[in-house]
Design brief:
The protein contains five helices and eight strands. It is an alpha+beta fold and 295 residues long. The chain has a domain of 113 residues: Superoxide dismutase, copper/zinc binding domain (Immunoglobulin-like, Sandwich). α1 packs across α3 and α3 packs parallel to α5. The radius of gyration is 31 Å and the shape is elongated.
Length: 295
């Protein structure tokens, strides 16, 4: 890593999962502390994943699109409009001043000659109290520093893990996309998110379905995107996903029984955590008839 930073070639290989194991471990360790290289690798991962969206588009027959939307239970005349949900976050910060109590000492003054001694004792107690407060403040400061360092280490480990997971997901998606056995389904936009594009890829060898999309709107508060497949009008969930800040999303699910029994797939907006039954507005619909063909 010349100049203590990754080269573009190294970042690309890491994003594709093509680095040697020792090199990948060294890069992952380096990424935990280097924000510059984190940005380079993140950009390389996005470019790698976006290749799935670069497949050539072709116009499907109008009759096919109408049939897919009908099977998905979507009426173009009643396509849901974009929901503009404004979320107001109110945070109440309650500050309670810390109160410290110092035990009161009652001194019985028996004679005028004892005043000097009592004053000396009071001064000693005040000095000891000041020293104690200084020690407490020092201890609290050390605890804060330890907590801060611990959090930074935890955040770095989390970022390194997430980058590793992202690179692995990108690698699997690219392998599926480039495999001659993989099948790509026709995907249609069914909402007013007209700039959104998606791809649905089935890998018979891995028994996995991959969905990748770009230009998606952020999901409203307390809601998420959910992928469904239908068999004779009955929908089964394949899971939920959330796009990043750029509107890009990738998701994969294992389907052990294969996809030959399913006719359509839809992406909807549902409550956070996913719904048991499809009920939210549709964003995409896909014709799965190609998945019925033998690879």
């Amino acid at each position: 890593m010349p100049g203590n930073h990754l080269t573009q070639e190294q970042a690309d290989e890491y994003a594709l999962g093509a680095s040697e194991p020792d090199t990948a471990d060294a890069i992952a360790e380096h990424l935990a502390d280097c924000r510059v290289c984190q940005g380079i690798v993140h950009e390389a991962e996005e470019v790698a994943s976006s290749l799935a969206l670069a497949l050539p588009l072709h116009r499907s027959p109008a009759a096919l699109k109408a049939r897919v939307l009908a099977e998905a239970g979507i009426s173009r005349d009643r396509a849901p409009g974009r929901r503009r949900i404004q979320t107001f976050l109110r945070r109440a910060v309650k500050l309670a001043p810390a109160a410290g109590g110092i035990a009161a000492v009652t001194v019985a003054i028996m004679a005028f000659t004892g005043m000097v001694s009592v004053r000396g004792q009071v001064h000693d107690l005040q000095r000891q109290n000041t020293d104690l407060q200084t020690q407490i403040a020092s201890t609290l400061s050390e605890k804060v520093q330890i907590a801060t360092i611990t959090k930074r280490l935890t955040d770095a480990e989390k970022a390194s893990y997430e980058q590793g997971q992202g690179a692995q997901a990108d690698h699997e998606l690219l392998v599926a996309m480039l495999s001659p056995q993989s099948i790509v389904a026709d995907v249609y936009t069914t909402s007013d998110q007209q700039n959104a594009i998606g791809r649905l890829i089935w890998s018979p060898a891995d028994k996995k379905v991959f969905f990748v999309a770009a230009n998606l709107d952020p999901a409203p508060a307390n809601e998420t995107y959910q992928l469904w497949v239908s068999e004779n009008g009955k929908y089964s969930s394949l899971g939920t996903f959330t796009p990043d800040s750029t509107g890009f999303a990738r998701y994969s699910a294992t389907v052990p029984e294969g996809m030959s029994e399913y006719q359509t797939a839809v992406v909807t907006v549902e409550t956070a955590g996913g719904a048991q039954q499809r009920s939210g507005p549709s964003i995409f619909a896909a014709d799965l008839s190609r998945f019925h063909q033998s690879p």
